[in-house]
């Protein structure tokens, strides 16, 4: 660490010497973007690592979400969760669609399938769930609802890099899954993202949409966008991919230490991983209950005063932000569990280079030492 502050997360950076040969190749071949050799290589290697067929790289996950909705030709209403980062619902609004918020499951923090069906109207065309903190949504229940009503399912899988559910890639569920490779994520390309699609035809449409809708030198087939990942970002991703398993193992050690040390702290509830899935240990949320001596915000300020940055993630929830307050489904009475959770959650520092000594500082402050 270069200073005394302990951040809530910190991007994993390989040795610079590993990255330099890739930069030299980019300089030598002068292919900087637009489906260059490193871009193609990263797509292939990510598909292999993640256990999926088709990966389309993007410059960021928000553009990927916007493009995914366009690729599936979604219109009208999209049912989604209020407990997420704003990019989820922003992508719906950017496409001129209406987000419809439904409440969450208080155990998984994911969208509650039992609430989805009641929110379906004749204008509903899609569901956009989020795999929160890398915990899988109830994918079977969501798919059954989608099949019954003829809806598309587009998963915001920003937290779900490398997660398998019942032995298979979680990213295979739904019509599309979107990953984030932002610097705060377990696997990052500085900025970046990807869409996982089930077949070559869908990938071709997505790849055209992220390049202005260009089909060939003379033909533009759709009002696409510039969502291309550069060669520098792709090269960094290739270097990162070599170390991802070690990085996640180090994060797992941090996760295990928190669980061991905080399990018996009165008023602190630990988030539980789905037993049918592996976690990538992207976040470590705790819930600060009424029995704890401090409120959630008081604990947040106490940690901050001692140079430890935690995060109230997600607070406020999307539906309470000014641009969504006019949406009928954003009414707080309609979303009691998401609102209650947002008042209690606190994500503690977790990253692969967090030292035992630094983590013990966090633990000691929570214990009141």
From TrEMBL:
Record keywords: Aminotransferase, Pyridoxal phosphate, Transferase
- ATP-binding is among the record's keywords: no
Q: Which Enzyme Commission number(s) are on file for it? A: 2.6.1.33
Tell me the domain of life: Bacteria
Entries under SUPFAM superfamilies matching the protein:
PLP-dependent transferases
Which molecular function terms from Gene Ontology are attached?
dTDP-4-amino-4,6-dideoxy-D-glucose transaminase activity
InterPro entries the UniProt entry points to: DegT/StrS_aminotransferase, PyrdxlP-dep_Trfase, PyrdxlP-dep_Trfase_major
Keyword match Disulfide bond: no
The UniProt entry's sequence similarity note says: Belongs to the DegT/DnrJ/EryC1 family.
**Entry protein name:** dTDP-4-amino-4,6-dideoxy-D-glucose aminotransferase VioA
What organism is listed for this UniProt entry? Shewanella subflava
* Recorded name of the encoding gene: vioA
